[in-house]
């Protein structure tokens, strides 16, 4: 019987002890695989966020926020300057406006509460300058009328609140780069005005055709319109003007340089916000998960190595006489050490089979649990155009990325599995090293004399 066969057979000599060792190793190896999967999945999500949200720059007119503030819209020349700036891969331009009752045949689907009435208290020249917000207005001071928000954009899919493609419930989307007099209508506004696909309404003295009905789950957005940018610019006599530009940079490494270049070329006429630092801050919770997972891998590896080490030391001590006899009849240190290393590898192999299977099963729930516990309070900045007007591009998007961060799918890749197997063999090697040293020091004469 060769040393390998004896090693395998000796590994199962004591079923109860071997079973306990294998079970403890299985737990350690399962935890190693689970932590590796969690870390790999989280790192992939971090890279995804940094390469998407982290490469966007938002440019808005200086002094403008929503439909408030002063300042002038960005001009066509400024947009051209932005587009031609080095490292800018693509640009999404948006123009926001509001339709009053004299501008359109549409009836707004919004109802003004006390907040809305206060915000619009200056809209009616007959309204009180004190900003009364009582629901009952005197006949000489009628309540202000809510307006309908309209967004002209080169990319209609970018106006969704959650950053996903716009949810068209009927009809089809529009070409944001066309000059057609068409529109996508929010579901609430469509219901209020009994609009369907193919219906028409007037706006700015022109007839507009409804190409599609959309919904976002956001009441303000669902009460608005989306039109091609050039069409809205023409209708409002604002050719070339925009209120928001989102520029996507070709690499996160070039964001800072591009921001510096834009600030130099646009001067104090525009406010520039980079998503890179915000994205970095928002993935900090994921970074902590990655560090925690790495610590878990290291801890589990140490625990597994300690288990096999202590087990083999105990086995070597129990078999000192057997080792002495083998050496006395001609067994070399190399053969004896090989036998015990085989025994350690056998125990580790059984533990690995069970542990890796266990890791595959629990890695998904464990990753989800780690992410949900760490990102529950995380907010994120996203690349979303909102219909709140100029400057709203960077507002209200934190919930979208928070949800995105918490939706990490664990993925067991061949690389991750190979790493787990490699660590398993490392555990066996470490666990066998010191017992091998003990075996080499055993002298047959001393053992047999003491026995």
Describe the structure.
The protein has 451 residues and is an alpha+beta fold. The protein has two domains: 3-51 and 284-450, no CATH class; 75-129 and 146-242, no CATH class. It is built from 14 helices and twelve strands. The protein has helices spanning 3-11, 15-52, 76-84, 114-119, 187-192, 229-235, 255-266, 275-282, 284-318, 320-328, 333-374, 398-406, 414-441, 444-450, and strands at residues 56-61, 64-65, 68-69, 88-99, 148-153, 167-171, 182-186, 200-203, 206-215, 225-228, 244-249, 270-274. The strands form two sheets. Strands 1, 4, 5, 6, 7, 8, 9, 10, 11 and 12 form a ten-stranded mixed beta sheet that branches. A two-stranded antiparallel ribbon has the order 2-3. The longest helix has 42 residues, at 333-374.
Q: Structural class given helices, strands, pairing? A: alpha+beta
Radius of gyration: 34 Å
The rough form would be described as: elongated
Query: Biggest sheet, open or closed, and with what strands and sense?
Result: 10 strands, mixed
The separation of the N and C termini measures: 26 Å
Query: Beta fraction of the residues?
Result: 5-15%
Domain count: the total is 2
Tally the beta strands: 12
- The level of helicity is 40-55%
How many helices? The count is 14
Mean pLDDT: 78
Unreliable residue runs: 125-140, 377-403
What is the helix/strand order? HHEEEHEHEEEHEEEHEHEHHHHHHH
